[in-house]
Amino acid sequence: MSEALLRVEGLKKHFPVRSGVFSRISGYVQAVDGIDFSIARGDTYGLVGESGCGKSTAGYTITRLLSPTEGAVYYQGKNLFDLNAAGIRQARRNIQIVFQDPYSALNPRKSIGDAMKELLAVHGMGRGAEAKEKVREVLQTCGLAPYHYGRYPHEFSGGQRQRIVIARALILNPQFIVADEPISALDVSIQSQIINLLERLQDEFHLTYLFISHDLGVVKHISDTVGVMYLGRLVEEAPKQEFFARPLHPYSKALISAIPVMDPRRKIDRIILSGDVPSPANPPAGCRFHTRCPEAVQRCSIEEPALRCIAADHRVSCHLVEG
Amino acid sequence: MEQLSEASLQQGIKQREKGESEYRLVWKHLSRNRTAVLGMIVIASFILLAVFAPLLATHDPISTDLGNALQGPSSDHYFGTDELGRDLFSRMLFGARISLNIGLISVGIGLLFGIPLGALSGYYAGKLDLVIQRIIDIMIAFPGILLAIVVVTVLGVGVQNVMIATGIASIPIYARLVRGSVLSVKKQGYITAAKAGGMRDSRIVFFHILPNCIGPIIVQSTFQVATAILWAAGLGFLGLGAQPPTPEWGAILSRGRGYMRVAAYLTTIPGVAIFLMVLGFNLVGDGLRDALDPRSRNY
Fold this sequence. Notes:
- The complex is a heterodimer.
- Chain A is an alpha/beta fold.
- Chain A has nine helices and twelve strands.
- In chain A, helix 3 (112-122) crosses helix 4, helix 4 crosses helix 5 and helix 5 (158-170) runs parallel beside helix 6.
- In chain A, the strands form two sheets. An eight-stranded mixed β-sheet of chain A has the order 6-7-8-3-9-10-12-11, sandwiched between helices. A four-stranded antiparallel β-sheet of chain A has the order 2-1-4-5.
- Chain A is 28% helix and 25% strand.
- Chain A has helices at residues 55-62, 85-91, 112-122, 128-141, 158-170, 188-205, 216-222, 240-245, 250-257; strands at residues 4-19, 24-40, 44-48, 70-75, 78-79, 95-98, 176-180, 208-213, 225-230, 233-239, 308-311, 314-316.
- Chain B is flat and about 75 Å long.
- The model of chain B is unreliable at 1-16 (pLDDT under 50).
- Chain B has helices at 2-13, 22-32, 34-51, 53-56, 88-124, 126-141, 144-155, 159-185, 189-196, 201-209, 214-237, 249-256, 265-292.
- At the A-B interface, helix 2, helix 3, helix 5 and helix 6 of A face helix 1, helix 9 and helix 10 of B.
């Protein structure tokens, strides 16, 4: 494992819940409640979990699109949360994000070329014909044609739009890209194209990805390391091979058992979780997963398990795992 | 699917790059829109009439001729004469100068202050929003005309002050309108994307949010031209606006009201003129709104 490009420490993001006439703060939604992980340069870290577990919030907070409640994010050794507004703007050159919904992520009133050229101008990375040339180049790299420069977003299909979103993220030559469910809004037939594009770009430009997804199949394909989130906490983290071969946390096991298998004759033992995810505004005491855990014992509802290292690079937070 | 469409594109259907500038595209679309062209012709005619009023006028717009009062339209007095025997045609021509100015300048003032106020309020939300909105609540609590009266009282009577007053009175309308649009646009993904691109707030507001709010602003502005002219007329009627004998459309209209039975043309003609001017601005505004939206432009 090479050096860590990005290290997240004790990241918390709580959203205040306001109620009543005077909008007093009556509680907090603990969307992300203390997560730590690090991503090595050139790696892809797959962050998975079901809807509402805080994975996207984590991505947005790491990129400072949301202001953090607590914690630190070290990017190349510098804490991003210590930067002032100008510092953040500068850091954005290296840290980009690919959005989930390519339909809303593009300004309908700007031609895609002009939108990308504007980014270059804002960061002092070129103007005029030179910038235009660079935009065309990046468009081509992302599987679009240079003559698409003057077109508007509504003239493109969903898959093409996501290519544009990726091209826009790439135009500033970033090193780190947060991909926030980049394929979940796309047609299945297009998804693999976008995944392949992301992989090709990673090789070509030595990018580091934080890949946020709820699709374990895709994460299995693209990630080097997998982190599983549940209700704002990281419950298990392991290198990909290890994770899929030997999942330890009951939640991970349940998730993996739910991946569809290509062979209809093969029987798999699905672990069906009962109930819904508890509200992050009022998470259960003890282990956050104990309300739905098929293996829960009494201790789980009282004592909160810590994220422990079980084997090399394999961390899990469960009382039942021997380590 | 995608490969297919890509391939068909490459076969040369639309291979040319669209390199035309935004202004030219807007103009191209606008000039192909028949109703917008009609509107532009109407406005251009009014402007020409106003500019060349001294050349076109047949009589002195303010000299009275009591022996000739309330004469219907004739070859000498195209639009007839008013209760003091002044030539209505000439008065309408010179009145066009004042009324056009009132309409445009008051809308200009409203936009100049209303847009930034609304944008600040909507974009930054929080306490600033609260303060601005309460001030606007207070302004909106008075009917526009009453607010204009207050401003004129403070500034003093006169046509210029009427323009300022009607402008100020329309600020809260724009501020509310813009705030609402900004609130909805700033939640869009592309605004987050602009932020993620490292852009300053000012750039995001002026180059990303406001262009996406332009539709309602344009529509409101075109209506506001008419409202301003009517407010100015009301102020004139109360003796706070254009003072007699200044020819101003609203003033002509309201003075003619007393003679509706004997000389209907005294109200009909300025009424139709105001209507046509508002219609012109409306048609152009509508066309402009469509032309500025890439989604409704087809090539």
